[in-house]
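re: that chain from earlier
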Amino acid sequence: MIARLLHGVPRHAFALLAAVLAVLVAAPVFANDYVLTILILILYSAYAGQAWNILMGFAGQLSLGHALYVGLGAYVTAALYVHFGIGPWVGMPLAILISVACGAIIGFLAFRFGVGGVYFAILTIAFSEFTRIGFDHIDWVGGSSGLFLPVANYTRNDILLLRGQPVMFYYVILALTAVAFVICHGLLRSRVGYYWQAIREDEPAARALGINTFRYKMIAIVISAGMTAPAGVFYAFYYNNLFPEQTFFILRSIEIMLGPVIGGVGTLFGPVIGAFLLTGLSEALQELLTHVGLETPGAKRVFYGVCLLLVVMILPNGIWPPIARLLRLERRDPET
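^ sequence. v structure.
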């Protein structure tokens, strides 16, 4: 099976991927705390972007409410830890299960009754907003006042409870991102992945060919929702505080999707490239503005908008496809 998935992939692509991974693994040795924090934010965006990319990039279903699954993953594991002392890795399966259930409900309502395109996107926003309003009034998870995880100065890293220093969080999110990349690669090259691409390109034609489009769109949304939940778990235990207005806010969903859109929707490296460019450059811009005394609220969002506008105008397929062609990293057709 592995040989089939790797068939046709240029050898130098593996060498480049191994080199990038080696640099990332060794980064904490050379990076200071500030750079390490930026790398954590980049990898977090890359992981969440990979999860979103399964639904939109692979299956062609636009979701603008993925903050819902981030919030559920965050609140479920954080509440279990605060109230019962249950560690995040133990609580994560429940968070994933709840996110999958919510994704299945949204998918069933949309795909069974033919809700697609912009109306599906609006439906995902509605569910995220409903959840945000609901959590604002649930005292058990802090309500609008927020849920705070206990913080202490740790002299050692406790990976089981995700309590420790930034370098531990860096390797955790690096591992999660690497696993997400491998999963997405396998899905994209599987039969399910080819069905998703057929649905994305022309759903009526895919249906005419006998593909059960309802079934495979449901598979896409539950996998995407389930993979997004661990991003929320990481978010909760890294920042140690949760507010519904921030966690479920639509801008959180937009930040998740911007990386794949700018990097290249439907590609494996697009979410990663997009996360590095957007997060890295926006943080550099924020630091520069602060240094010269021109710190402006909202500058980061303006930067995101400018980047999105430039990519749509100049590279409508994203940044990664031309880079892949330039470096000859595209998958070779067995017939050629």
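The first helix runs from residue 2 to 6.
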